[in-house]
Design brief:
This protein has 272 residues and is of the alpha+beta class. The protein is built from 8 helices and 10 strands.
Length: 272
């Protein structure tokens, strides 16, 4: 039986490859007549290094023929770089409320000179990401704490803006006026209805659903969005057919680690 998403991945392969090359990859597979999803990080071969890697179009389509649905890549590259990512999950709130938060988060970053690629998660949230291709001698434990600090600072700044955003009134109606609109930890029992800016996904071997990947549960695409698209986007817009046939190209921005550190210092000086 032909793989369900082979035609889709054939159409978007060239757009996906920049997010897969040079990184260890994890793949979600859904086989015909199987009730569940198989999550794979290794090829199944022998030897000390069996991580899945996808270096070219042929390798990507080989996995698509093996019923790949979703593709994730490690946040930390195999050379000297890493993505910085902010994962915004609506949790109990409507997806539109995560969308409001993503709009504010994108604006906050841009004001500090850091544009981000914004994408729909494929399910009920949104992601912001940008690349730092050269971390210099920054150690991994310092990297993850820096990334988490950025998430906390942006969450703090977004919460302030949501307080004055009439289109975000539903968030406050849901969480209560005296509670937080955003939490950065999914285990936060005091704010179970708040939006989640998840800082704890940032760790060794962390991986991230790449742009153009399909989400197995929804069948929708983790589609990158232009700033103009973000305000009017609806999840149903991100069907595989729509993204494969006519979707704006969005570039992953790159910044130095010093630019990120400067932005973080500015947010901290602002009380975040």
């Amino acid at each position: 039986m032909a793989a369900k998403y082979l035609d889709y991945y054939t159409s978007v392969a060239d757009r996906m490859l920049p997010y897969l090359r040079g990184r260890q990859v994890a793949i979600e597979q859904q086989f015909p007549r199987s009730k569940g999803t198989v999550y794979r990080r290794h090829t199944g071969g022998s030897g000390e290094d069996t991580w899945i890697r996808i270096a070219d179009r042929d390798a990507l389509l080989a996995w698509a023929r093996q019923h790949a649905v979703g593709l994730h890549a490690h946040i930390r590259s195999e050379d000297r770089g890493a993505w910085f990512v902010i994962d915004i999950d609506s949790r109990t709130l409507p997806t539109e409320m995560a969308q409001r938060a993503a709009i504010h988060a994108a604006d906050i970053r841009a004001e500090q000179g850091i544009d981000a690629l914004v994408k729909f998660s494929g399910s009920d949230g949104f992601h912001l990401m940008w690349d730092v291709p050269d971390l210099g001698d920054l150690k991994d434990d310092v990297l993850w704490e820096l990334e988490r600090a950025v998430v906390r600072a942006v969450a703090c700044e977004v919460e302030r803006r949501l307080a004055g955003d009439p289109e975000a009134a539903l968030i406050w109606d849901t969480v209560g006026a005296d509670n937080r609109a955003i939490t950065t930890g999914s285990a936060d029992r005091e704010n179970p209805n708040a939006l989640l800016f998840d800082e704890y996904i940032l760790k060794d071997s962390a991986n991230f659903r790449v742009p153009y990947s399909i989400h197995p549960a929804s069948g929708l695409v983790a589609a990158p969005l232009s700033r103009s698209q973000l305000a009017t986007f609806r999840p149903e817009d991100a069907s595989p057919e729509a993204v494969a046939s006519d979707w704006p190209a969005v570039v992953l921005p790159q910044f130095t680690i010093e630019v990120v550190q400067h932005a973080l210092a500015a947010w901290r000086a602002d009380g975040c």
